[in-house]
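User: Run a structure prediction on this.
Assistant: Running it now.
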Amino acid sequence: MNDDLTRARQQCIGDIPRRSAARLPDKLAVVHRDVRLTFAEFDALIDEVAAALHSEGAKQGDRLALLSHNCWQYPVLNFATARLGVVLVPINFMLTGGEIAYILDDCAADVFVVEDALVSVAETALAESSGSVRLRAAIPLSGDAVPDGWRSVADWTGGEFGSPPEVFVADDDVVRIMYTSGTESRPKGAMLTSRSLMWQYISCIVTGGMSSDDVEVHALPLYHCAQLDNFLSTDIYLGATSIIVDGPDARVLLRTIEAEKVTNLFCPPTVWISLLQSQDFDGADLRTLRKGYYGASPLPVEILREMNRRLPGIRLWNFYGQTEMASLATALGPEDQETRGGSAGKPALNVETRIVDEFDRPLPACEIGEIVHRSPHATVGYLGQPEKTAEAFSGGWFHSGDLGYLDADGYLWVVDRKKDMIKSGGENVATREVEETLYQLDGVSEAAVFAVPHPRWIEAVAAVVVPSTGVELDEQDVVSHCRERLAGYKVPKYVIVADSLPKNPSGKILKRVLRDRFGLIANPPSRSEVT
């Protein structure tokens, strides 16, 4: 295929804002705080930032790590990097310096863009990293002066760098690396291509009933593929309006929905619960809100009923998936919320899902096995980990690591996580990482970490620790030890000191016994709760 023909057929992530601007130049595209950008203005900013990055030496294949809370600069950088063929690496802003350093080194980041309020932790990370970063820039959100040694992202706008170069980004060129916490003690970098994301956007739009008339508020962190790719990027693709807020504060969300006449909102169940419990809920005018999305965990039936009663005009979707699927795999639509509550629904438009046994053989309806998918959404592999990639794609299907079954009507039900993941408030916590941190504490002989139900976070991190002979462990000391080494959401909210851990004859710790013993007890013995 000749070059002209190839370019004529191209549509990659970086093309999306330009094409939306050509259709709807004067329509409101992105709002954050006092900044209100039309699609034409948004696209122009993307070109300006792309040109500036190019002038600073960023080139196709380089990695740009982004550490920031929600802001209008986030989607600009998302599309500017894609336009240059630079790989974007979003980083969770709740991580510690050491955790960030690991990601910088693992992806060999060339550029590090950081919100100014996070420069301190970023500098700690840089001090602990191997030093691949050659350019660092700060997003000036606080109004304070940009620290010494950092460029200001504000200087990248204004057009003084001219136009960005034309870069051909092939469908299967990697444009994003998303770090996911699995069973490993260290996160893995899932590589997503333009093809992965474009097909996923189409699945979200069709499966989720999205349209260009939508006005959506984006409150969950944009480092998450759910908020960034299931919702914000699909809005830009469609020509819908995106309202970005700093975080999922209930009062701010309710005020924003009313002021901006918001039609769409995605939240994990924990945030929907906080909205319903807010003292401002009943006084807010929420009549424009017509589409609601949730994920990370099923919406409790009693909350679903309350939402139907207090938000009678809203239609709900449950999105289920994982980072490696970019991230939508299946969805439960509005028509099934009452009758199939708790189900993950059916495969999205461009996804095929089945249940397999340990030998990758498909299982019949209602038999529990591993959930696997086949889709162009899927990652092209884990960065630098070919063996993990081969394992994940055994038999020509992506292995999710989740256990579940398909009922007689083809609805997916997730019953457990093979990877032993905890989803606390929508954040993934790898139990092994927390356990390894606990073992670093002097006096800990054994440790087991597992999920317990929580009224706010849906799941909370719980730990049972066994002290070494002759050692007395204090629950608060265990918590303090973890706080110094882990992001806050990974720190156990419950710590139980025990004489021993239940095990099977081969010595494997039986976490299901621990969950049964402590998970449903209102006041587990000898526990410390972290607020």
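The first strand starts at residue 28 and ends at 32.
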